[in-house]
Design goal:
Residues 77-332 form the Fatty acid desaturase domain. This protein has helices at 25-33, 43-66, 70-88, 90-94, 105-114, 128-131, 155-161, 166-181, 185-195, 211-238, 241-262, 276-281, 293-296, 304-309, 318-329, 343-355. The chain is mostly helical. The chain has one domain. α3 (70-88) packs across α11 (241-262). The longest helix has 28 residues, at 211-238. It is globular, with a radius of gyration of 20 Å.
């Protein structure tokens, strides 16, 4: 997830026939039948996980700012980046859980994490659900899809490194563009369409918010704007170092998330509508026994392919759902086809695919 990119890497000419498969109805039935009894979001898990992650993040960033030791700054900054990254990933859960399932959690998350990190939940709500629509996944209408495996080799490092600029871009978006947009309507429209969604597709244009959602957008956007202005003003009160330290930590979290995004899918679709099974196989699970994926794909995101089968399944139930499906469907099944060993293997596969696009 990154704010709408302004860089437009062009897909190279495809070197393969688009991989399409018919739906595996047995797998889809198993996903429905074997997960009965799961699917209820547990408030104690959500609140505890989010509050601890945010608390560790704020403690880490405070130590990194005040410490006079470079080693302590680096260690505290790393801890803070990982903790904030986990806390921020609850934005993904907010787009899928029923609005009545966790009373107060959306507001609490926005006040404690979303607005302070300048990524309020409106930037993902109403956007990510398009990515899950049967006829829009992987097409030009999908805000979260690019055929990265079919692009030029330089597209991959550019895709990751541009995330370093995200914290600064968010300060400009909320601290400069939003206030100016209040008095310049065309700028307001431009900012909303281009810079109000956590998307990677540069062609995506966001529609104006409506109904109750428009009300949530107003207070979240105003809150984020006030905070962004305060951050800018802090330079004149406390100097540039505290803000620079915070931005460096958040840049690291953004790069880590961009790496996760890079391996969340195989990115091999050329824009055609895909079956549910094809979408599943274009997505990625990185199941246990490895522990590293819990760090770089937290809050259930290591089961991203499974999530595409059951988008409303709470993150804390995905490990059990995976165990049931893997045990029932077994080796050589379609389900096993979405399981991958780790980030390095996935990056290597995508990079190798881009090498074939040089001609």
């Amino acid at each position: 997830m990154t704010m709408h990119q302004t860089i437009h890497p062009q897909p190279a000419k495809a070197t393969r026939v688009q991989f399409m498969v018919e739906d595996d109805k047995a797998m889809l039935r198993a996903a429905r039948d074997l997960t009965k009894g799961l699917g209820e979001a547990k408030p104690a898990i959500y609140w505890t996980d989010m509050l601890v992650s945010a608390g560790v993040g704020y403690a880490g960033i405070a130590v990194a700012i005040v410490s006079g030791s470079l080693g302590v700054k680096i260690a505290a900054g790393l801890v803070a980046a990982l903790a904030f990254y986990r806390a921020l990933m609850f934005i993904h859960e907010l787009t899928h859980i029923h609005r009545d399932a966790l009373p107060g959690f959306r507001t609490g998350w926005n006040l404690l994490v979303g607005i302070p990190m300048l990524t309020p939940s409106f930037m993902y709500e109403g956007v990510h659900t398009i990515h899950h629509k049967r006829t829009q996944y992987g097409t030009v209408e999908d805000p979260e899809y690019l055929p990265l495996a079919l692009m030029k080799p330089w597209s991959l490092p550019l895709f990751v490194l541009v995330a370093m600029l995200l914290p600064v871009a968010l300060i400009v978006r909320f601290g400069v563009l939003y206030p100016l947009g209040l008095i310049i309507p065309p700028l307001r429209k431009f900012t909303w369409e281009r810079f109000s969604s956590l998307s990677i597709n540069p062609e995506f244009r966001r529609k104006a918010p409506e109904g109750d959602f428009a009300g949530r957008v107003r207070w979240q956007e105003a809150g984020a704007s006030l905070w962004a202005v305060a951050l800018i003003a802090s330079v004149f009160v406390f100097g540039w170092q505290p803000l620079a330290t915070a931005l460096a930590i958040l840049s690291l979290a953004a790069v880590l998330n961009q790496l996760r995004t890079l391996v969340a899918h195989l990115w091999e679709n050329e824009g055609e509508a895909m079956t549910v099974t094809a979408q599943f196989l274009d997505s990625v699970n990185v199941p246990p026994p490895g522990l590293a994926a819990e760090i770089w794909a937290p809050v259930g995101l290591r089961y991203h392919a499974l999530h595409h089968l059951m988008p409303s399944m709470p993150y804390h139930d995905l490990p059990e759902a995976h165990r049931r499906l893997a045990r029932e469907l077994g080796k050589g099944s379609t389900y096993e086809g979405a399981n991958h060993p780790g980030m390095l293997t996935l990056v290597g596969r995508i990079a190798k695919s881009t090498m074939g696009t040089r001609a």
